[in-house]
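Lab manual, section 2.4: Encoding a predicted structure.

Procedure: take the sequence of the chain (114 residues), apply the prediction step described in section 2.3, and record the output as structure tokens. A sample record is shown.
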Amino acid sequence: MKTPIGKECKYYYADFHRGHNTQICRLFEGSQDAPFWQPNLCQTCPVPDILRANAAETLKLEATIIRKFWGFKQYVKVEAWCSQCFTVVADPMRGCPNCSRAQPSIFHLPEQQE
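Recorded output:
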């Protein structure tokens, strides 16, 4: 679903049908930051860009809301980990370095012998 700023994000949900006014980020569901999430945080959220750059199903994201200047400035901080090898992913845009080495690239396919 498209966020309020127009980027596609699988964690964002909005329902405005027949008088409903519901906007939810499912990435924050069940976390302690869920009551503090607001749709304006989508402007600085890196999750849509991470999902567009890396579509690995084993990449799991956890987000927290960082508040600075007595809560006047807020932004989303994202941490990633790999569910296949259970390691922390330093750069979520690139994905898990351990699992990406195990997958063959199209440039390094073995040659077929006839």
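Check your result against the sample. The first helix runs from residue 47 to 53.
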